[in-house]
Amino acid sequence: MGSAWLPKLLENLRKPVLRTSVLAGVLAILAAVTIYSYSDRSGENGKAEGMVGPLRAQNGKIVDARGKEVVLTGVNWFGLETDTFAPHGLWSRNWAEMLDQMAKQGFNTLRLPFSNELFDAKGKPAEKAIDYGLNPDLKGLTGPQLMDKIVKGATDRGMMVMLDRHRPTSQGQSNLWYTDKVSEERWIKDWTDLAEHYRDNPLVIGADLHNEPHGEATWGDGNEKTDWRLAAERAGNAVLKANPNWLIFVEGIESYQKDGYWWGGNLQGAKDNPVRLSDESKLVYSAHDYSPKVWSQSWFTDPTFPANLPALWDKQWGYLVKDKTAPVVLGEFGGRSVGEDAEGIWQRELIKYLKDNQISYTYWSWNPNSGDTGGVLKDDWTTINDDKMALLKSYQAPMAAKLGGQAG
Question: Catalytic positions, please?
Fold first, then answer.
């Protein structure tokens, strides 16, 4: 059931003649209808399986319409943001089988990267991006139509979808939310269009506004050209006007008061300068965190490693959850090793920290062709990396909806 009826009814309440009858109708509807209800079986980690939307933030947690905690334990599937204009791997796999496999592994959320260029006329899947013998139902689709197919397929399988504006264009990421090719106005319009477009799908839960602000990006200094906090407010409030049900995911920056961290991972500024949305219950912060194989940060060579890691994570982003300020989703983390080397130790310690604090995550990545991290899938695009999955399954929340609905 869509929610577009509610603003219209509320508008009618302003008309004296209709106020009494309309109010009675509203109360009757609210009493009779359970919106977006799904199965409610008891799941692993003591969480109720299924959720009733829309989601909101409460005391540092994400909760559903009943006030029950919802933990996102998902995975990234990238490609739509690149010049293939299609999720990677469709050159060797059927898209529906890929989603079946994700759901079978227990991922309850799909973080789906895209670029603004996807919505241009040239945003069509590249010639060799898809094997149409394996994916005949994708032939002739534009990039946005392919996004629709993947989104519907994921939500039909009981997964939530978190949309991620990963790049302005397919050529690469950007320090700031705008470039000389994609203006702030275009960035916001594409988001509001998406918010309206997916308004009637309750498992499309929100907007990760801009991937990994870094470089000259600032937080809370009031400079409209660089202050990511102000930009997130402008975009977030526009999105909520278009779709008040969505969560607004706001990543950190790279450096705050000369203290550097991972791109998008530094949320220290949110302590004194929180993001201000028209509906504060829709704010979720997001951070990214990576291993020494990505970059040899100083904390990996500290003599106290890995005992120093929890305090580091507390400082950068975990405090928001521990202080019950706002929920945090660790939108990206990953690595090739889960063994006894520094990267493997880091991954295991991070999963333990997330589990201990019930912090949501979307793992990077499903794809094996992520150069820094590899993927949940091995290089054949079919076989599961059992060691990685064993680690991730040590902290997984139930699916958002009961499996077995209309898929494909």
Answer: 212, 332
